[in-house]
Amino acid sequence: TSEFVAPTSLTALGYHLAALPVHARVGKMMIYGSLFGVFDSCLTIAAAMTCRNPFISSFDNRDAADEAKKTFAADDHLAILLAFHQWSQLKRTDGRKSRAFLRENYLS
After folding, report:
1. Are the CB atoms for 105 and 83 separated by under 8 Å?
2. So what's the pLDDT on residue 7?
3. More confident call, 10 vs 32
4. Residue pair 54/80 in contact by the 8 Å Cβ criterion
5. CA neighbor of 15 nearest in space, from 29, 31, 4
6. Percentage of the chain modeled with pLDDT above 70
7. Among 13-17, 54-58, 78-82, 86-90, whose mean pLDDT is lowest?
8. Residue predicted with more confidence, 34 or 50
9. DSSP structure class, residue 104
């Protein structure tokens, strides 16, 4: 009979992933983001992956919410990242405009 024998050593990437208290997919993105110099953006996307979608869409306005999301990017993760960057810039300058931005773009 052939029995499965688990490997006793980890790769360098596996060692670092094992030390992170996140899902391996999220950890891998964080590590590679750090290596490629885009850690902040990867961390924002990783945070978004652990929560529900910030684009609000009720049955009545689902099409409008989808269109609002597409104005940022076709990809969901990239749309969330770009929306977050725009919102955070507005929040630093004018709180009222940042709230209006959230409403207009169907963001929670």
Report:
1. yes
2. 66
3. 32
4. yes
5. 31
6. 94
7. 54-58
8. 34
9. H
Q: What residues contact 36, with CB distance under 8 A and at least 6 apart?
A: none
String of DSSP letters for 28-67: HHHHHHHHTT-HHHHHHHHHHHTS--SB---STTHHHHHH
Pair 17, 28: CB distance under 8 Å: yes
Look up residue 14 and give its two tokens: 């596996």
- Residues sharing a CB contact under 8 Å with residue 77, sequence separation 6 or more, in sequence order: 45, 48, 49
| Average pLDDT over every residue of 60-66 | 84
Q: What are phi and psi of 65, to 5 degrees?
A: -65, -40
Token pair belonging to 92: 């630093």
